[in-house]
C-alpha cells in the first residue's frame, strides 16, 4: 500500500475511534458542573436561535472583564479587560465546533466553556475549556464524552438554590 494511503487510513481510524479519545471523568468536568451559568445575551445580533454572550464580570481582585462570543461557525469566546483593552481568546475549538455553554467560578475566577459540533464537518465532538480570567491564560482543554456533562445553561437565567 502506498505510504500516503497508510497515513490516510490511520488518520481516519484516529478520528473515528478516537486516539487519546474523549473522557467522562476529569477535574475540569467537575469544575464546569459546579460553576455558575453566564446567561445568554438578550441582545442577539445573529437571530433568536444563536446563543450569544456579552457579559461583564468583576473579578475578585476588582478588575472587570467582558466575556463575549457566539455559537456560530468560527465562533469562539473572547475576554476583554476593560481597564487595558487587552483581548484574549478563552476558547476556540475550530471549524464547526461552536461554543454552546459558558460558566464562571467566581471563587477562582476561572471561565469554563463547552463547545460542541461536527469537527471538520465529519465527527461530533465536545470540548471543555478552562481559562484563568486573572492570569489571562488557558489552563486546560479536554475532549469529553457528551453524556458526561450536565445540560447546558437555560436560555433564561434561573436563580440558583442555596
Short descriptors:
162 residues; mainly beta; 15% helix
Number of helices: 2
- DSSP summary, beta strand count: 9
Termini gap: 63 Å
Q: What's the order of the H and E elements?
A: HHEEEEEEEEE
Strand order of the largest sheet: 1-6-7-8-9
Gyration radius (Cα, Å) is 17 Å
Form type: globular
Low-confidence stretches: 1-18, 157-161
Average of the residue pLDDT scores: 84
Give helix % range.
Answer: 10-25%
Number of domains: 1
Q: Report strand %.
A: 35-45%
Question: What can you tell me about this protein's structure?
Answer:
This protein has helices at 3-18, 27-34; strands at 36-37, 52-58, 64-70, 77-81, 87-91, 97-105, 110-119, 123-132, 137-144. It is mainly beta. The protein has one domain. The chain has a 5-stranded antiparallel β-sheet, with helices on one face. The protein is globular, with a radius of gyration of 17 Å.
Quick overview of this protein structure:
The chain is mostly beta strands and 162 residues long. 15% of the residues lie in helices and 39% in strands.
Q: What secondary-structure arrangement, pairings included, does this model have?
A:
Blueprint: H1 3-18, H2 27-34, E1 36-37, E2 52-58, E3 64-70, E4 77-81, E5 87-91, E6 97-105, E7 110-119, E8 123-132, E9 137-144
Antiparallel strand pairs: 1-6, 2-3, 3-4, 4-5, 6-7, 7-8, 8-9
Amino acid at each position: 500500500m502506498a505510504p500516503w494511503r497508510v497515513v490516510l487510513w490511520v488518520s481516519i481510524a484516529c478520528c473515528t475511534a478516537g486516539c487519546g479519545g474523549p473522557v467522562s471523568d476529569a477535574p475540569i468536568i467537575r469544575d464546569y458542573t459546579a460553576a455558575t451559568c453566564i446567561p445568554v445575551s438578550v441582545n442577539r445580533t445573529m437571530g433568536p436561535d444563536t446563543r450569544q454572550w456579552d457579559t461583564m464580570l468583576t473579578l475578585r481582585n476588582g478588575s472587570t472583564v467582558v466575556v463575549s462570543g457566539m455559537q456560530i461557525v468560527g465562533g469562539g469566546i473572547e475576554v476583554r479587560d476593560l481597564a487595558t483593552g487587552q483581548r484574549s481568546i478563552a476558547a476556540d475549538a475550530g471549524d464547526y465546533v461552536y461554543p454552546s455553554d459558558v460558566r464562571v467560578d467566581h471563587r477562582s475566577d476561572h471561565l469554563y466553556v463547552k463547545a460542541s459540533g461536527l469537527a471538520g464537518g465529519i465527527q461530533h465532538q465536545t470540548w471543555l475549556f478552562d481559562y484563568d480570567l486573572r492570569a489571562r491564560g488557558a489552563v486546560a482543554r479536554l475532549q469529553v464524552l457528551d453524556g458526561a456533562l450536565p445540560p447546558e445553561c437555560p436560555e433564561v437565567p434561573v436563580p440558583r438554590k442555596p
